User: Fold this.
Amino acid sequence: MSEISTQRRFWSCFPRVACLALLAALGFSLPVGAATIVLDPGHGGHDPGGIPGQRVSEKQAALDVALRVRARLQAAGQKVVMTRSSDVFVELSQRVAASKRAPAKALFVSIHFNSAPNRQAHGIETYHFDARSRRLAEAIHRRVVAATGEEDRGVRRARFYVLRTNRRTAVLAELGFLTNPQEGGRVARSSAYRQKLANAVASGVLSMVH
Ligand SMILES: [Zn+2]
Assistant:
């Protein structure tokens, strides 16, 4: 039997379920209906975010990662709305208004980075306000912690404006401390690390869409 026909035989008997599981394990998304995701890079314009002493400004890092998340989600067939896609200031109320204009099942994901006067602080935190948003927060959080190997600072509930006034499933990801020399340094210097963060966020979002 030639090698090609052996391969064909293998694929023809390969159970469909196993095939789908393999694709899912490899991180491929299945084209089962598109959702709308509102991506909200924190800060912008005259608001750099965080505190002085960051390795890179929060507004810059948040936008960079959000644009990478957008590319991943669009490649997976999802519709993406950005609250900002350049270095401009956007009021919190306008960010929530973008979410309100999106379909009822849209997911709102705010991208931020952390800062602390204590330079040793590092790790990942993911926030939600209402109970229904907790699953999305957990899905994103788990993947970001696993992808980075960073400290798991937990999924937390908070009354952030963009979460508590939001009518959509809404989460806010704090993707690391820009004031920490190691973690902040990686975010500032390594586009591969920022891509890793973006892939993990997108994967968490897609796990809730499919
Ligand atoms: Zn922020």
